[in-house]
UniProtKB/TrEMBL annotation:
This is ABC transporter permease. It comes from the Bacteria. Residues 18-200 form the MacB-like periplasmic core domain. PANTHER family: ABC TRANSPORTER PERMEASE (PTHR43738:SF2), ABC TRANSPORTER, MEMBRANE PROTEIN (PTHR43738). Pfam families: FtsX, MacB_PCD. It is a multi-pass membrane protein. Keywords: Cell membrane, Membrane, Transmembrane, Transmembrane helix. Residues 294-410 form the ABC3 transporter permease C-terminal domain. It is found in: Cell membrane. The chain crosses the membrane at residues 20-38, 283-310, 387-408. InterPro entries: ABC-4/HrtB_transporter, ABC3_permease_C, MacB_PCD.
Length: 419
């Protein structure tokens, strides 16, 4: 007697009831799968993107906003800081290294970040083609930017004002692609890197008055052929500004003294990526716990539905079970038959639920292609998903216990006599 085949026949004999129970269980497991995938990849990406950055310095405002804008490039910057003040900070004895960032423009939503060659080196960025920028308006594309735009070395484009897409174009100068980074699986993939001088020149072009346009144009033309700063800060005698300064501590004492000194003694704000991200994860943890609770409730309801379906079907087919016993089936075989039905239902629900979870994440990513969520991988399978299957099977076994023992106690004489 093939119990597996017999159980499957019983399940497919009631397709509506079987389908609804499987779907309900699959929805609960899909929510858990999405949470597992987002939590695992989100934490890894956040940690990877902040690696090597001890402190972020920017304009006064929200510390979390400063971190999200300066490290992860997902929020609006809090403002600009004076270049002179940032240079003074970089000479502090507690500072080992600093990387200046200047932002304010984008291309099709991808942020154009002015910096020096230390920034791609911080993430061990490798070039897939071309070279790093050395002149104004030369740019290096992240792998994701290159893939989405289709640009290669030698192509040109015009940047737009602002961090988000949809603003006016800076059509006075075109950016020229001189390099494309290899896929890094970090924040570099979503950025367009150039020099700080490029960002300054882009905005200077629009702020010059009409009366000084000719002189300004001559200065501007001369600046375009001047090599940009590859390390440290750009050299200038003017009062310039940058957006953010990434800082590496020289020693552990700096973690205690430097943030306090910056926050109380300067017009700038200092924020620690590790501290702010821990705070963010704590805030997100409440929402994740609520969703996990909701998923568990749905799975519990599904388990109850499976129990009711098995129990009701058992009452309808007691005569069938008595016939099985009469033709030689043992009590244990009837018990395993019911357990098999519960296990098959939940196993099917687990497989569909995991597939739905990955599909849901794929849809979420497609709706947010340029944010942190857009860099997640929907079709990566985690070993924790095996626990989702094990959890579903446990629900199936628990839901089958009472119907299975009822089948075990089926009396041949009593049932056949009733018939």
């Amino acid at each position: 007697m093939n119990l597996l085949k017999l159980s499957w026949k019983y399940l497919t004999f009631r397709p509506l009831s079987t389908g609804l129970n499987v779907l309900l269980l699959a929805l609960g497991l899909a929510i858990i799968t999405v949470l597992l995938l987002i939590q695992d990849q989100f934490e890894k990406k956040m940690t990877k993107d902040a690696a090597g950055i001890d402190l972020v310095v920017g304009a006064k405002g929200s510390p979390l906003q400063l971190i999200l804008a300066g490290v992860y490039h997902v929020d609006f910057p809090t403002g600009n800081i004076p270049l002179a003040e940032a240079q003074k900070l970089s000479r502090n004895r507690l500072v080992k290294n600093t990387i200046p960032l200047a932002m304010g423009d984008n291309y099709q939503g991808f942020r154009i970040v002015g910096t020096n060659h230390d920034y791609p080196s911080l993430y061990e960025g490798k070039l897939a083609q071309g070279e790093l920028w050395t002149l104004p308006f030369e740019v290096v594309l992240g792998a994701e930017v290159a893939a989405k735009t289709g640009y290669q070395v030698g192509d040109t484009f015009v940047g737009s004002h602002g961090i988000s897409a949809g603003s006016h174009d800076h059509d006075a100068n075109e950016f020229k692609v001189v390099g494309v980074l290899d896929l890094q699986s970090n924040v570099l993939d979503r950025l367009i890197l150039t020099s700080i001088e490029s960002v300054w020149l882009t905005h200077e072009e629009e702020t010059e008055s009409d009366s000084s346009a000719t002189v300004a144009h001559q200065h501007h033309a001369a600046d375009l052929t001047r090599e940009v700063a590859l390390k440290g800060f750009p050299k200038t005698d003017e009062a310039k500004e940058i957006t953010t300064l990434l800082v590496q501590y020289r020693n552990p004492m700096a973690a205690i003294q430097l943030p306090r000194m910056i926050n109380s003694g300067t017009s700038m704000q200092a924020a620690s990526p590790s501290f702010e991200m821990n705070r963010l994860f704590e805030l997100l943890g409440v929402g994740i716990s609520l969703l996990q609770g909701l998923a568990i409730v749905i799975i519990g309801i599904s388990g109850l539905g499976i129990f009711i379906a098995l129990y009701n079907s058992l009452k309808e087919r007691k005569y069938d079970l008595a016939i099985l016993r009469a033709i030689g089936a043992s009590r244990l075989q009837l018990l395993f038959l019911i357990f098999l039905e519960g296990i098959m239902l939940t196993f099917l629900g687990a497989i569909i639920g995991i597939f739905l979870g990955h599909s849901f994440l794929s849809v979420i990513i497609s709706l947010n292609e340029q944010g942190v969520v857009g860099s997640l991988q929907p079709w990566i399978f985690l070993k924790e998903e095996l626990w989702v299957v094990a959890y579903a099977l446990a629900v199936g076994i628990l839901a089958s216990v009472i119907p299975a023992f009822a089948a075990y106690q089926t009396s041949i004489a009593k049932q056949l006599t009733k018939a």
